[in-house]
Amino acid sequence: MELTSWGRYPRIKAASSSFETEKDLPPLIEREKELIPRGMGKSYGDSALNTRVITTARYNKIHSFDSKNGVVVCESGVSLAELIEIYLYRGWFLSITPGTRLITVGGAIASDVHGKNHHTAGCFSECVLWFDLLLPDKSIVRCSRKENRELFRATCGGMGLTGIILTAAIKLRKVNSAFIRETVIRCSNLAEIFQRFEEYQSTTFSVAWIDCAASGKRIGRSVLMAGEHADTGRLNMALPRTLSVPFDFPGFCLNKYSVSIFNQLYFHKSPSHVKDRLVLLEPFFYPLDKIGNWNRIYGRKGFTQYQPVIPRESAYDALKTILNRIAEEGLGSFLAVLKLLGPENENFLSFPMDGYTLALDFKIQPKLFPFLDELDRIVMDFGGRIYLTKDVRMSKEVFRKGYPRWEKFAEIREKYNMKGTFESLQSKRLEV
Questions:
Q1: Separation between Cα atoms, residue 206 and residue 226, nearest integer Å
Q2: 71 in the same domain as 87
Q3: Is the bond preceding residue 343 a cis peptide, omega within 30 degrees?
């Protein structure tokens, strides 16, 4: 079968297996050498790609729920969307969520995903109490901050390279409503959006759309969206019917002119300043989930998302340099997101650090990868790193410089004989 990621690049021939119970796994591990576990296929790059994959889609039962403390015990194939659908009406929501609910619990742990509240709540691993991990020798170990701690730290953010995550205990957050009280502020340039992020850093959630096609005095003009869980309103999210992109857009549709026009319209249609308006959780957290197959907008050749994080003290200069180069090359993205992140955690390969992260979508084209290599050098010069979940082309040198604890992660891979069993295209490229 042909297999790809959400970015639709690369496309490979792969054999796929699935399982329903833990007893199904040992023979699969024995038979399928060099495999990678895979959830819903929403990682952007090649971290869940290999010639052999084991999907968790059928391993998706919920075992228990502690309604007093909000702890759900479920299998790794359960999606975040399912947790929301089941528990929101009871007054519980995800403690940490990325920009899509269409990923599995196992994928969220493996990527140690972050959301709009990283500066106040940290990564997804902060709400993980424990998980059971299947190792290459087919033994199952429980991992937590107190039990098998090094495996916990390696697996959270470890991109599926430590084993197959089985059952996990996840702490949800108590909420009184399916609404967010949102403040929206239009910012005229990069300096202003940085000022606003600092002003709203005590607000639970914050994110900004950024116009990466703007230049000169308008460089970095943005729309900040900050919010808190509302105390009033219904508890069901009442998701709208999903629209879908029915076909691949021709490659010429996405160019510097169409991106510039879109960004102009988006910026000017946004309110200059509105405070505490009520919006549903779904459009606030998951604006793209209502558009099925939106990755087709980038054409059949696919796209990649480039997402660096820069330490707070050097982030302004670094991002101004990056945005200037993007504008000069005419490679602007209409899906560009800026977030303020909090302190990094102790997991070996977790992405966030205390600083700013910029996520940019680029369609695949001949001049793109050399240009991203140039951006890598800027990111490295300013002490940053690149997000593994979005990566499809980073060099091992850039990886090792950005993730100084990679050697400890590699030691754990050697210690438990994970190399040669759990491998992805990404792990081979990065030699980890």
A1: 4
A2: yes
A3: no
Quickly tell me which residue has 């990564």 as its tokens. 123
Tell me the residue ranges of DSSP E strands in 238-330. Answer: 243-244, 273-280, 291-292, 303-306, 308-311
What's the one-letter identity of residue 175? Answer: V
The larger pLDDT score, comparing residue 276 to residue 262, is at: 276
Residue 52: count other Cβ atoms within 10 Å of its Cβ. 16
* 264 contact partners, CB below 8 Å, separation of at least 6: none
SS3 breakdown of the chain: % helix, strand, coil, rounded to 5? 35, 25, 40
CATH of the domain at 121: 3.30.465.10
pLDDT for 355 beyond 80? yes
Residue bearing tokens 């600092």:
198
> Using CA atoms, how far apart are residues 7 and 362, in angstroms rounded to an integer?
10
Q: Which amino acid is at 251?
A: G
Tell me: do 231 and 354 sit in the same domain: yes
- Per-residue pLDDT band for 268 (boundaries 50, 70, 90) equals low
What's the predicted TM-score (pTM) here? 0.96
Distance (Å, rounded) from C-alpha 266 to C-alpha 221?
Answer: 11
